[in-house]
Amino acid sequence: MTAAGDMLAEGKSFVQKTQQLRLLWLAGVVVALAVFGVLSVAVGTRAVGWPDIVAALGGRVESIDQAAIAARIPRTVLALLSGAALALAGALMQGVTRNPLADPGILGVNMGASLAIVVGITWFHIASAQAFIWTAILGAAVAALFVYTIGSLGRGGATPLKLALAGTATSIAFSSLVIAVVLSRNDIAGGVRSWQIGGVGGATFDRIVHVLPFLVAGFAISLLSARKLNSLALGDEMAAGLGERVAWARASAALGAILLCGATTAICGPIGFVGLVVPHLCRLLVGVDHRWLLPFSALTGACLLLSADVLGRLVARPSELDVGIVTAFVGAPFFIWIVRRQQVREL
To answer: What is the pLDDT of residues 70-113, one digit of tens each?
Structure first.
């Protein structure tokens, strides 16, 4: 009886220490987010003094320096929202597919949204923000369904390796189709190529307002899927035995990821690797419990994209690198490391 009591006490102590460590990491990530947010507003291709920064934050735009700060504020907000959305979508996709390589870019979802937008511009002459967003979400959904269907064919069903291969092939094919469509339209080629790199430059609060309802819906659906994803991590049979409707759990979590990917791609272009890097980092910090992993991924993804945007402004002064290029430099080596370390096992 005493031994059992000691084990119970040790278990409670371990849980308390784990919770304390998670809260400590949470505080650290929030502080880092605040620091990167300040840097995103203060640092850029044009050096601006703190008096002008404070004046612009207070709504005064009476000089070129203050106008530069006023332009950085919506850019900072967009980077924060987009980073959170992409990282959260990556964590959801990895949970739904139990694939450590799942990512909106690797599974072809971002490129599906891109192809849909390019086709919409070229053939259907879409122009409004709402049309862009709905078109991107539809393209993301079709791409996700297509990749999952292809990856499910044959023996063994949708294994991580088959999904990664199907997604990579689909992404390459969709990218080629985008080029083929754009080649015949010189009037839109420059804008589309620039948008395809992925970036948060030129952000305005008007554009953010249009996409915000879709992001809020995606965030809500995603965070409500945490308990379902914990059940799915035990295996389909175990999840069903615990009373979980497996198909519904997967569909609802996938819907959240598609909304986040589609809306973000519509406004920023296809930004890769954020959804791959961040969830793996967050698992090292807070473990595999999706009730912690999902919000941590969102906060850490916002930090990553803000820092990548700041870095892109600094390394190429007086010009700047789009954030999609910076995340690719970070994400590509990380992708190789995951493949070597995980050997494409299931989560």
So the answer is: 889 999 999 999 999 999 999 999 998 887 778 888 888 999 99
CB atoms within 10 A of CB 4: 8
pTM: 0.90
Tens digit of each residue's pLDDT (9 = 90 or more) over 326-346: 998 887 787 777 766 655 555
Q: For residue 306, with 0-12 CB atoms within 10 Å meaning exposed, 13-18 middle and 19 or more buried, which class applies? A: buried
Top CATH class, 79-342: mainly alpha
What is the maximal distance between C-alpha atoms in the chain? Answer: 80
How distant, in Å, are the alpha carbons of 37, 41, 47, 63 from that of 55?
17, 12, 15, 10
Would the CA dihedral through 257, 260, 263, 266 be positive or negative?
A: negative
Tokens 């008096």, residue located: 51
108 Cβ neighbours under 8 A, 6+ residues apart? 143, 144, 146, 147, 166, 167, 168, 170, 171, 174
Rg (CA), the chain: 21
